[in-house]
Each structure stands twice: as C-alpha cells, then as structure tokens.
Design a protein that fits this description.
By secondary structure, the protein is α/β, with parallel strands linked by helices. It has a single domain, classed as Rossmann fold (3-Layer(aba) Sandwich), CATH 3.40.50. The chain is globular, with a radius of gyration of 17 Å. The two termini are 20 Å apart.
C-alpha cells in the first residue's frame, strides 16, 4: 500500500469532526472523498499530509508525497518562474548542488503540459484565479512524488486544463503513482477506483 489511514479521530473542543476514519491507497490507484462543506474533508487531508495532528489513529506513507491544498500557498510578489526556483531550492534533491539545473526540465514540462509558460515572468498578484491554481498544482507535482493528495485540485480550471489534468493523472497512475482527490462533487466517477462519502465524521 502507498498510503494507509487507520482509525483517525479528531475533535475541536466538544465537536467531533473525524471518528475512526480508515482507508488505503494502492499503487496505481485513484480514490475520491466527497462530503458537504464542514464535513471535515480538509481536516482529514491536513492530518494525512502531516500538517495537523490527529487525536488518535495512524497514517503510514510509503513514498514521497505531494500535496495540493485548496487554498493556493503562493507568494504574491514572486513570479511563476521564481516559485519554481524557490521550491527547487527547498527540495534539496531537486537542486542537487551548485550549478545543477535539471529541475528546469521538469518545470518546463509542467508549464508546457498545463499551458501557462507565457506567464512565467508574471507576478502571482497579477494572475487569474485559474492560472494560480495551475501553479498551485504544478508545485505539488514538481518534486515527482509517488502519492498525490489533492484538495479541490481543478477548482477554477477551464475545460482544456481540466482535460489536461486528467491526462496527467492517467499517466501518473500508469507509472505506479497513487492519487487521492478530495472534493465536494465528483462528476467523472468512472475515473475512480473507490469513492467515499465523509459524513458524520466517518467514511461511507
């Protein structure tokens, strides 16, 4: 298993948000989690990626994990290209030492696939919401993870970008990667191996 989540529980004060949530992701699989606003989807994702601690339960990850949050974690006064450079420096295995610019190949591939290379020198503050979301997604893919955890990943995408997202996802799965998509609505159900409904703190 690439990702195993076992009996996760989380409360805020007296309000129980998650109550014994368990699921797993196998190599080459895609699973979806749906639920109403406030059902605890984002809380669950934060626990899965280690950004929040559960009250009880266990998360086991086998491989490198990429996380695309619903709210883009971007710097308004950096350009698109500067974001990639910043993240390349943060991921030491991407930078690979002074003078190593192999990460630029991956950056260029992502810019080409999602068709926003023309905005490379634009400040994030001047980008549309859809283009910001493209950058948000590409930064999650940039270090070539084996597991993708995506919170409303295609929110704000135009139709062409939406199709390119699924094209990338198919190739990612074919190479053995595992994907977890959390969203309030899933229309392409045939793309998923499992779809869970988070309701009353439990997956159904």
């Amino acid at each position: 298993m690439m990702l195993r989540v076992e009996n996760i529980a989380k409360s805020f004060g007296r309000k129980a948000v998650l109550n014994g949530v368990s699921f797993h992701l196998a190599e080459g699989s895609m699973s979806g989690i749906v639920g109403e606003n406030g059902s605890g989807k984002s809380t669950l994702l934060k626990i899965v990626v280690g950004a929040m601690k559960a009250d009880s339960g266990r998360v086991a990850v086998a491989g490198c994990l990429g996380y695309c949050p619903q709210e883009a974690q971007l710097f308004s006064q950096l350009t698109v290209l500067e974001h990639f450079q910043y993240f390349a420096a943060a991921y030491s295995r991407l930078a690979g030492g002074k003078g190593n610019h192999k990460w630029e190949i991956t950056r260029n591939q992502l810019l080409e696939h999602f068709q926003f290379g023309q905005y490379g020198r634009h400040l994030v503050a001047h980008l549309s919401g859809g283009t910001r979301q493209k950058l948000n997604l590409c930064l999650a893919l940039f270090h070539r993870p084996q597991i993708l955890v995506l919170d409303e990943p295609y929110n704000g995408f135009d139709w062409e970008t939406y199709l390119r997202f699924w094209e990338y996802a198919r190739q990612f799965q074919a190479e053995g990667g595992a994907i977890l998509v959390v969203t309030h609505l899933i229309t392409d159900k045939h793309r998923f191996g499992h779809i869970y409904n988070l309701k009353n703190g439990m997956l159904q």
